[in-house]
Amino acid sequence: MGRTSNAREKILGAARSLMAQRGYSALGTAEICKAAGVPKGSFYYFFESKEALGLAVLDEHWAMQRKDWERVLTGDGAPLDRLRLLFEETEAGQRAGQESCGTVLGCMFGNLSLELSNHTEVIRGRLQEIFDAQVDMVQEVVAQARQRAEITAEDTRDAARAVVAQLEGQVLFAKLYNDSTRLNVMWRNCLAILGAKASGETAGVA
Amino acid sequence: MGRTSNAREKILGAARSLMAQRGYSALGTAEICKAAGVPKGSFYYFFESKEALGLAVLDEHWAMQRKDWERVLTGDGAPLDRLRLLFEETEAGQRAGQESCGTVLGCMFGNLSLELSNHTEVIRGRLQEIFDAQVDMVQEVVAQARQRAEITAEDTRDAARAVVAQLEGQVLFAKLYNDSTRLNVMWRNCLAILGAKASGETAGVA
């Protein structure tokens, strides 16, 4: 079984890499198996469909990213320091991707939301769960900052959604312009959206 | 020639509708011609490639949207009133799409940015031009609001980019959750990003 589970990992790894670069629709299972170096016939032994593989890639990617988000957002520091670290790590991650692949790959969840959400309900549902979980995690930090009277935003759910939306929108532009430095304004915008008090910062303040 | 130009319009219309629903990669020229009701062989008489058709769809869509943006953003009202109207019309447009198609279709430019920007440089370049033009138009209104001391954002370019990024991010979520009412918080977030003075609003203020 060591051998077969190794083939499954190879298929998953190849699919993850190909999806990050070219999306989901343009890929075929034969191409994925070729990139994975496994016989084409073995695909359906491990995955019942391309959609099942897509879900497995999403789940694996979120399991890793979730650990990062939890480490950063549930640490000991002040709430806004933790949130700032999330933005810094996001920028660093996109910069590292750009350096290793030559292009900013963007956010897999955002990419698939726009590519797929209107034509596979199973993947749409999974992406909704992932973004709900992200908003939950950000909302908790926002609520803590609000309790400390460090921000003025009253509806912490709407504020957390706006923060994640700003992140997705800026990552979209970083990908389109292939320029991860575009992300360095995100934190200022986040503070403005939250109505952060001490900083008095808005999008345009250096 | 009346007949041939009519066929070109039919291909364009079918491609636009199919791309809005299913993206670009998943489409084939045969399918587009079938939906357009024109002979498959006529495709290359009008378009030299699928990519050329994709560009034509983008150009046509932006020509229409640009007129709407110009009408709204260069009107006589106060700058922030004009910007607010842009957000209201965006929300109304997504709501109308949801009512007629059953699903929120999102922003064609955002959709294609995430689906395609890393694998067709020609389309990436065109999308960059379109978003540059959008940011230019928003920046002009933001600069006018700044001149009237109605907002505190100092770098009007960064602020305009953040406003368009917030719009794209929220439209992404409206599409993913198939819920156009998610867009009704956009204006509050926009005011917060700009550091609007009179309102004192932030993302969470009702």
Automatic annotation (TrEMBL), chains A, B:
<dbReference type="InterPro" id="IPR011075">
    <property type="entry name" value="TetR_C"/>
</dbReference>
<dbReference type="Pfam" id="PF00440">
    <property type="entry name" value="TetR_N"/>
</dbReference>
<protein>
    <submittedName>
        <fullName>TetR/AcrR family transcriptional regulator</fullName>
    </submittedName>
</protein>
<keyword id="KW-0804">Transcription</keyword>
<dbReference type="InterPro" id="IPR001647">
    <property type="entry name" value="HTH_TetR"/>
</dbReference>
<feature type="domain" description="HTH tetR-type">
    <location>
        <begin position="5"/>
        <end position="65"/>
    </location>
</feature>
<keyword id="KW-0238">DNA-binding</keyword>
<dbReference type="Pfam" id="PF16925">
    <property type="entry name" value="TetR_C_13"/>
</dbReference>
<keyword id="KW-0805">Transcription regulation</keyword>
<dbReference type="InterPro" id="IPR009057">
    <property type="entry name" value="Homeodomain-like_sf"/>
</dbReference>
<feature type="DNA-binding region" description="H-T-H motif">
    <location>
        <begin position="28"/>
        <end position="47"/>
    </location>
</feature>
<dbReference type="InterPro" id="IPR036271">
    <property type="entry name" value="Tet_transcr_reg_TetR-rel_C_sf"/>
</dbReference>
